[in-house]
Write a structure and sequence with these properties.
Blueprint: E1 6-7, H1 10-20, H2 26-30, E2 47-48, H3 49-62, H4 66-72, H5 80-87, H6 92-101, H7 103-106, E3 111-117, E4 120-126, H8 135-154, E5 162-164, E6 184-185, E7 191-196, H9 209-241, H10 249-256, H11 261-270, H12 275-293, H13 298-304, H14 310-321, H15 325-328
Parallel strand pairs: 5-6
Antiparallel strand pairs: 1-2, 3-4, 4-7, 5-7
Length: 330
Amino acid sequence: MLHSHLTTLNAVSLVLETFAAEGRPREALLEGSGISLAELDRADIRIATHQEMQVCANAVALRRDIGLDLGRRMHVSSYGILGYALLTSATFGDALRLALTYPALLGTLFELCLIEDGDKIWLSASDYRDNEALTAFNSELCMTSLKVICDDLLGHALPLLGARFAYPAPDYRQRYAENFPCAVQFEQADNAFAFSRHWLDQPLPLADRITHRDMHERCRRQNIEFTGRQAWLGRIRQLIASQLHSAPGLGALATQMNCSERTLRRHLQANGSSYQELLDELRFERAKQMLQEDELPIYRIAEELGFSETASFRHAFSRWSGVAPSQFRP
């Protein structure tokens, strides 16, 4: 799946910080993401979700249970303006409902909702459609960070009545008790944890009506910016993907987007990307699909992806994946 969603560097920074104590070089964790060390110091940088997920994939390759540790470090302050809007909400329920209003600002890969179940409320994360190999990691990161947010909002641990996950129990399942001190089930319909309904009406200790109103308005404006960028970047991806056989080039793509080449380049840079990076990503995704599903010889796949020589495709695919196209085939 290709990602048009934009997010911040928060998760990437946490990955690097978590592994720093183990002496892991940052370059190894950033490998293949297109994120430079210089960008890590820029507060205004926005990256595509696929870049964030590449860093996470590198982390999972080193330690499979890293999602639980990263989630515990994703405090409410990690979410910038949205975090402050949540903290200053009147009640716990108000804060949760506000968070679910702005999934783009949460940077989630799931559909989040509150499910009423008698005297219980389930905070549910479902409809995951991303990299299947990272299902457990992303679910652990999402649910653990949501639990941490709840604890931060209340100023103490939210008592849980149950937790469930939509995948088989991992061999490190005993670690789940560190984050979810309750009965935990696996291979369920969604990822969720439950708490008593009465907590929704709990006043928050940092509630402030004036500050909350200001933060809420900033969230609204930031959400418009994020979703607008997503739609714009999605259109660019769609145009390139439809022309992989004969890629349009930056100038022709700018014409199709009804803007100047300079404007297109500037917007791509603001989104943490470039024309060549998008082209490479789309070619890579299509190449993997064709190698796994089609019977086409490699030279024909190279032609379909717009490579003038098969050797150029072989070299590019090896650079993207670390293996030759023939080795990638089932």
